[in-house]
Amino acid sequence: MKVTKQRKIRVGVLGATGTVGQRFVEALVEHPWFDLAVLTASSASAGRSYGEACRWQLSADIPSPVVDAVVQPTEPDVDCEIVFSALPGDRAGPVEEAFAAAGYGVFSNASAHRQDPDVPLLIPEVNPDHLGLIRTQRAQRGWTRGFIATNPNCSAAMLTMALAPLHAVFGLKSVLVTTMQGLSGAGYPGVPSLDALDNVIPFIGGEEEKLSSEPRKMLGQLNEGKIDLADFLISAHCNRVPAREGHLETVSVALLRPATPQQAIEAWQTWRPLPQELGLPSAPHPPIVVRPEPDRPQTRVDRQAGRGMAVSVGRVRPCEVADIKFVLLGHNTIRGAAGASVLNAELMVAQGLVGISESASQRISE
Amino acid sequence: MKVTKQRKIRVGVLGATGTVGQRFVEALVEHPWFDLAVLTASSASAGRSYGEACRWQLSADIPSPVVDAVVQPTEPDVDCEIVFSALPGDRAGPVEEAFAAAGYGVFSNASAHRQDPDVPLLIPEVNPDHLGLIRTQRAQRGWTRGFIATNPNCSAAMLTMALAPLHAVFGLKSVLVTTMQGLSGAGYPGVPSLDALDNVIPFIGGEEEKLSSEPRKMLGQLNEGKIDLADFLISAHCNRVPAREGHLETVSVALLRPATPQQAIEAWQTWRPLPQELGLPSAPHPPIVVRPEPDRPQTRVDRQAGRGMAVSVGRVRPCEVADIKFVLLGHNTIRGAAGASVLNAELMVAQGLVGISESASQRISE
Amino acid sequence: MKVTKQRKIRVGVLGATGTVGQRFVEALVEHPWFDLAVLTASSASAGRSYGEACRWQLSADIPSPVVDAVVQPTEPDVDCEIVFSALPGDRAGPVEEAFAAAGYGVFSNASAHRQDPDVPLLIPEVNPDHLGLIRTQRAQRGWTRGFIATNPNCSAAMLTMALAPLHAVFGLKSVLVTTMQGLSGAGYPGVPSLDALDNVIPFIGGEEEKLSSEPRKMLGQLNEGKIDLADFLISAHCNRVPAREGHLETVSVALLRPATPQQAIEAWQTWRPLPQELGLPSAPHPPIVVRPEPDRPQTRVDRQAGRGMAVSVGRVRPCEVADIKFVLLGHNTIRGAAGASVLNAELMVAQGLVGISESASQRISE
Amino acid sequence: MKVTKQRKIRVGVLGATGTVGQRFVEALVEHPWFDLAVLTASSASAGRSYGEACRWQLSADIPSPVVDAVVQPTEPDVDCEIVFSALPGDRAGPVEEAFAAAGYGVFSNASAHRQDPDVPLLIPEVNPDHLGLIRTQRAQRGWTRGFIATNPNCSAAMLTMALAPLHAVFGLKSVLVTTMQGLSGAGYPGVPSLDALDNVIPFIGGEEEKLSSEPRKMLGQLNEGKIDLADFLISAHCNRVPAREGHLETVSVALLRPATPQQAIEAWQTWRPLPQELGLPSAPHPPIVVRPEPDRPQTRVDRQAGRGMAVSVGRVRPCEVADIKFVLLGHNTIRGAAGASVLNAELMVAQGLVGISESASQRISE
After folding, report:
1. Which of B361, C239, C349, D126 is the 20 to 30 Å CA partner of B193?
2. What do you get for the CA distance between the two ends of chain C, in Å?
3. Tell me, what's the pLDDT at C90?
4. Contact (CB<8Å) D199/C243
């Protein structure tokens, strides 16, 4: 797949200075299909250069292509086709609607619209067909060109990746999950160091609710313009641990059709989702890395697998209470946030669902 | 309860220089009933002062009463009645037997004999009646005065404390537990800092097996000199996290007779175990601290509850998959190791089961 | 020295809910001479119980004597004689003056008045005679009973403790110091965990200036109601490190009269300051702990020396550039903050300088 | 500069499984001039695949080109021209000599031969002319083709980089340095986590001695086949801090000819060393990054500057005791170890000093 430089799609990042916003910038600054043309932030930062407005966390220096970019206010009059939203959950709702109404394609990492019945909650490997909701969305909301597509909560993203092949092959009955979530999930300044160091905090506001509900929507069926939730139970215990990035999860799963650990591993290893078939730029190969070691995946060691887009799974074994149990790990601000949104956009581009003056399918040639 | 100084019982610590050994010394150096008279270590350390042989971790200075004590080899000819064993699991087995055969009361933190059918695996709050096994033990092994009593694995200790009142009141069907265990549980030098910092390791050798089996023995019934295991299932996921001390556990429990979170809290708060009734010196009041805050217990904040002997419980709520779920926390090297053993010894002293020239019941006066 | 309960002096803590405020509460809640009668905080917290208003950091539970105390606004009409100020530096100045003008003895941990020429900057071991400034202060400000006495910046407190005996015996020419300061020094929420973990930050706002100037005032001479600064140079490099509490400092000192490391050690070990002679309740014995080990003092291991009030010194050796070099450590929120202020108050009580209806010397009997 | 693939020089790594050995593998596995053909380790690992023998720390997976490579014993009969030595200091001495005697070019990170009068202690940016010692070395030791070239101690490497332009322009009189060194400097398993977490250890065995002597050799003059040490004093305080990688150093410098901070900055920014002029593959551009922010460089944020090969300098300001003071940071296992050795080899290749059948100058074409 080849996209010539002059045909790159102009994109923007809403809320570009925060922890997730920076991950969007990192993912887009040299993207083969997208031209990062717009960075927005709160009015306090608007008008300043990105270099001044942003306390860059990811490396010694802000990437040079954006260091002098002028930060714009978060208003739906920016010069681009697609916006990626790293806005905080409590502000994202109406702002994202305004952008969609103004004709932008909105790819949101915020939770505001995830549970709207007409908004796809999307993992390209898991439920690409849920993009069908966008037709309903536009019809119901009176939008012609704009739309909102969301990616899930970070912990739910990696869990759903691991569950999808099991759900397809064996059927899920119930899932009991305990998360050990890295500090970057709380944003910046986020968790005070006096609370983080030498401690575990067994609570993250709203997290367990998202983790109990989002996978059921993503693994649900699209029927006549709406999603029937998948019929299984999820119970979550969410914890903050003093690791910088990476969410580790222990999972016990009861299945409709019994499976051995080896059969589960085969389900993961033979999984061939659409983004990998399409060769989307951000799609990891393989999407799920099955670790054979007795003590892996580990947060620090494995979080960069597949450039942060793969989910690592290990310690697959029978569960004394459910059927099988295992450990999974993913990068919370890449697969769990910015990278997820970018992959969503790549999927829609590849399927000709995003574009303005010419069809996106023309834009992309093999 | 009052024990005059001249009647203190002479005790020793086997393997006194390690992480758990130091906790034994800390617990015993000013104990009201025990006189810490013997410290043993490997032959490399024997003959040196404790101050020289031990890399003390717990405070700036080794307690002055033991700094000049001469470390003795771990041989069953030391001058005391009771020994506390902090020996490593792979060496503890025959050494503890030799001490018991020589007439010592052995209180062991090692796993070697925990599953022996004639050895009590004891938590004084939970199964004090299991001391009845000592009669069987002596009969079968031909020991007249010596014996072995063990305390459980650290993670199992706190879990079983929290489960005991639920088991008594509602009956347990199954338990799904994920642990987040502090670094001191691996001893010294233990976990390399390059593995610990900014990481979670989802594996601890042998831990899940212990956690799946020990609670069932402790919550079992003593019948005609043997224990019938309690009839419920436990599945464990054990993880090492970068906290210094304290093991946090998330627990989902299915019950025989349904209970609300509030009923579970009442079961914990109305629990009146024997050590608290007897006023044993190391018994915490209350044995289980129920935290009302939404984000507690936390490892660093709550591990010292009850001077490290209490178990803190919080976030009690309905479980979508089982019946109720909650978080618990305990201090792994105090309630989970040295403090547990010392409390075992206090129980036997209070019940007149330990003593030499005169009955222990005489030794202890109200 | 004995103070009967009915004669305890009523004291208050201004800004009682913060990191240093909590250390004041901890130090005062069971103090033999003081009755902790007043807790103040910002108007947002006033009227609530201390248990509700304060996010207690120091142990599982807020000390029971204060948990239900009603927090008062920080106004100079509280019912006590002495107030300890844990107010932030930018607000402390006028508030402390208002309290002093209203007749309260103000013991301040804030930097606002430290460099006022008529305000003593006090370490009871180092410059108790500087209390003579209070006469000047009252005369100049028209205060009859109230006053302000300050304790130094945390890093300066421990450095000055270690320098004082060297200054007295050998004379100081220059001091080059690098600090490695724990996170609690920044208060709560303070340093974000994303900045703290796996990092060193080589900058702490205002710290190097304080560290360069405060020791020279404390080691200066009181002459006719004013302080002549000590005549030596200090250069400081201040760094934030991911340790919870404790400030470690490496120090190279040039002396007027050359000394060997052994002579410096003797100067520390033979130092007999006034608080220790008077037996003040918070005075550590010894005030300076000289560690003989090659790798001590260490932050975590030694910060509690002397219940956080001692300064530990080690690795005393010749310096290739100056004369001698060494490492020192102190507890930043105890000796470096709340404990320092409490010791100041104890000194003034013991010297009969604080009291209302009867002389403080009567109040205190041997 | 272009090197065709068939002309790559075969190289090996001695001690390839340790912390520094892994950094060598990382630096060499896709190197444009070198073909990583040999990996050696202790006899316990020899014969196993590198994937089995090595506990890889740097990413999720061992680089695929070496995962199946068979580890060889560390004997001077391996099939390559150059060996990089990551051997531990106590074993490196005779082994490296044996390799050099057998004709290999030995680039060593070990300290064993650094102070040999006929062995260059090399930083290509600082003292490339010291390679002239190799002629002396061969003559004295009777080696015809082999040789030993060493890189400095990690802390000395970055300090000397920063000092070199100051020495050249202003002349050095004395240097007082305090280091805050990351954990990886101690190798694996290295520092136990119980010693590292929430702590600073003010001692690293042998480090202060190296830091006081090595810069004087590197900044010395080559005269008639031997080095005259540079004539200035260094005093070092070395500390271990709980950061993963990166050594931060605070430095106070007295100069022969006074300089302002701005003049020092200009000396760094106008420095044009040989490796950058030659375009050596591992040479960073610029070699010294001057940070303008008030709180930089920081360990985590800046250690990867120049792919770990640059030294970052900041907070340049007048020193109250010396002339100027500043902070510097470098990556200890890249610029301070493996990367340094690889750059040494690149320099010798570029200068035609390494090669076998044809001259290296032929081998390398612009």
Report:
1. C239
2. 4
3. 87
4. yes
**Domain extent at residue A248:** 154-332
Place of tokens 């069953």: B76
Q: Are residues D112 and D207 in the same domain?
A: no
Between the alpha carbon of residue B238 and those of residues A247, B156, B325, the distances in Å are 16, 11, 17
Q: What is the mean pLDDT of residues C128-135?
A: 97
Domain identity same for D163 and D303: yes
CB C227 within 8 A of CB C114: no
| Chain B contact set for C198 (CB, 8 A) | 197-198
Q: Rounded to a whole number, what is the distance in Å from the CA of A248 to chain C's nearest CA?
A: 18
Give the H or E element holding residue B159.
helix B154-169
Whether residues A145 and A158 fall in one domain = no
Verify whether residue C31 is a known catalytic residue: no
* Contact indicator for D51, D19 with CB cutoff of 8 Å: no
Candidates D197, D198, D302; nearest CB to A60: D302
Is there a single domain that holds both residue D164 and residue D223?
yes
Domain count, chain C: 2
Same domain, D267 and D179: yes
Instruction: Please tell me whether the peptide bond between D88 and the residue prior to it is cis, using omega within 30 degrees of 0.
Output: no
CB contact under 8 A, B178 and A320: no
Name chain B contacts of C302, Cβ cutoff 8 Å: 60
Calpha distance B355→B22 (Å, rounded):
25
Whether residue C60 sits in one domain with residue C30: yes
* C301/chain A closest Cα distance in angstroms: 15
pTM: 0.95
Which residue is associated with the tokens 């939770």? Answer: A111
Could you read off the pLDDT of D21-67 as tens digits, one per residue? Answer: 999 999 999 999 999 999 999 999 999 999 999 999 999 999 999 99
The domain that holds B319 is classified in CATH as 3.30.360.10
The pLDDT > 90 percentage for chain A reads: 93
Check residue A328 and give left, alpha or beta (phi > 0: left; psi -120 to 50: alpha). beta
Do C81 and C93 sit in the same domain of this protein?
yes
Beta bridge partners of D174: D233, D254
Structure tokens at A203: 């609570």
What is the least distance, in Å, from the CA of B259 to any CA of chain A?
17
The Cβ of residue B9 has, within 10 Å, a number of other Cβ atoms equal to: 21
Nearest CB among B202, B233, B252 relative to A248 is that of B202
Beta carbons of D60 and A289 less than 8 Å apart:
yes
Same domain, B34 and B132: yes
| The pLDDT of residue D355 | 64
String of DSSP letters for A339-354 = HHHHHHHHHHHHTT-S
Chain C environment of A197 (Cβ under 8 Å): 183, 193, 196-197, 242, 244
On the question of pLDDT at D365 being above 50, the answer is no
Is the pLDDT confidence value at A6 over 80? no
Q: Are A250 and B296 in contact (CB < 8 Å)? A: no
> Strand, helix or coil at D357?
coil
List CB contacts of A107: < 8 A, sequence separation 6 or more. Answer: A82, A83, A84, A85, A149, A150, A151, A341, A342, A344, A345
Give the contacts of B39 (CB within 8 A, at least 6 positions apart): B12, B13, B16, B25, B50, B66, B69, B71, B72
User: Which of C61, C60, C10 has its CA nearest to residue C39?
Assistant: C10
Please state, in angstroms and rounded to a whole number, the distance separating the CA atoms of residues B316 and B293.
10
CA C47 to chain CA centroid, nearest Å: 29
Interface test with D, best of C250, C304, C324 (most D CBs within 10 A): C250
Q: CB-based contact (8 Å) between D320 and chain C?
A: yes
Of A54, A80, A154, A238, catalytic: A154
Chain segment A50-90, per-residue pLDDT in tens: 999 999 999 999 999 999 999 999 999 999 999 999 999 88
